[in-house]
Amino acid sequence: MVRNGVVLNMRSLSNSAGNAGSNNVVVSPDRTFADVSGGALWIEVLNETLKLGVAPVTWTDLLYLTVGGALSNAGIGGQTFRFGPQIANVHELDVVTGKGEIVTCSANKSSELFYAVLGGLGQFGVITRARIALAPAPQRVKWMRLLYSDFTTFSNDQEKIIANYSQPDSVDYLEGQVLLDNGTPNMWETSFFPTEVVPTITSLVKEKGVVYALEVAIYYNSTNEEIKDQQMKQLIRQLNNERGLAAMKDVTYYKFLDRIPCPVPRSRSRTRG
Ligand SMILES: Cc1cc2nc3c(=O)[nH]c(=O)nc-3n(C[C@H](O)[C@H](O)[C@H](O)COP(=O)(O)OP(=O)(O)OC[C@H]3O[C@@H](n4cnc5c(N)ncnc54)[C@H](O)[C@@H]3O)c2cc1C
């Protein structure tokens, strides 16, 4: 992997004790941004910002990735259709360049370096700090999976939702998945179809060979739950999914974002190079 290259253990940047924690993530007094170590994990960013009722607006599916690692790619997830990828929500970076200089860069300062490093696959410097935009965090999430046996119907519904992205009644998260005939639907790590519909879904997958899932989430707080419920019902009425094969969950914002388990046990992930 590193012939003529260099391997850096970015987790050693975490703090002087080598532990993950609040030293990695410093939220500004007005809570509009956080300064985050390049070696911090996104789950740590979530933990620290949520304590103050704020959070980044756009996420990857898996949160057990470093901030520098995701920003060296793009950081794409279900919020990207509204807010862009994570690299579009960074105000400033500290970068160690190939010449060993530490440069603070942004859209207005050393912008060539800034835009090269964001999505730069580690080829233009090492991100040691990122200033990440924050917004008020919602409390809870209404999370739905809708199934489609026809690709055109599925993509038409997906595009309909995306086209509404700038409206106040836009959904907050949208992804799509393909379900193949290689197991039952509840083998998905994040699946939540009621057991009584699983045989129907399984036979649909067997019959069609492939079934498509639209995954949608709407965020809410105790103050606007009723409005968001109406919004969800109105949305479902407009969509053309397989009726009777929808599933819904109501979870905390934290549980929703942390829905994919860490693939490496945490004690190992801390020391991994
Ligand atoms: C299970 C899994 C799920 C994923 N889900 C998503 C997803 O939903 N959305 C998404 O966008 N991506 C996703 N990814 C891809 C992920 O964003 C990239 O693989 C990212 O690089 C991982 O970060 P890392 O901390 O593991 O980086 P590493 O694997 O440690 O590094 C990857 C590369 O990034 C560069 N890099 C890492 N840190 C820095 C730094 N501080 N400064 C400069 N360059 C650096 C280096 O070139 C390095 O070679 C996923 C990956 C996995 C394994």
From TrEMBL:
Domain FAD-binding PCMH-type residue range list: 1-137
Protein name: cytokinin dehydrogenase
Source species taxonomy: Eukaryota, Viridiplantae, Streptophyta, Embryophyta, Tracheophyta
GO MF terms, alphabetically ordered: cytokinin dehydrogenase activity; FAD binding
Domain of life of the organism encoding this protein: Eukaryota
Enzyme Commission number, as recorded: 1.5.99.12
Keywords tagged on the record: FAD, Flavoprotein, Oxidoreductase
Cofactors that this protein relies on: FAD
The keyword Cell inner membrane is annotated on this UniProt entry: no
Single GO BP term: cytokinin metabolic process
Catalytic activity: N(6)-dimethylallyladenine + A + H2O = 3-methyl-2-butenal + adenine + AH2
PROSITE patterns: FAD_PCMH
Family per similarity comment: Belongs to the oxygen-dependent FAD-linked oxidoreductase family.
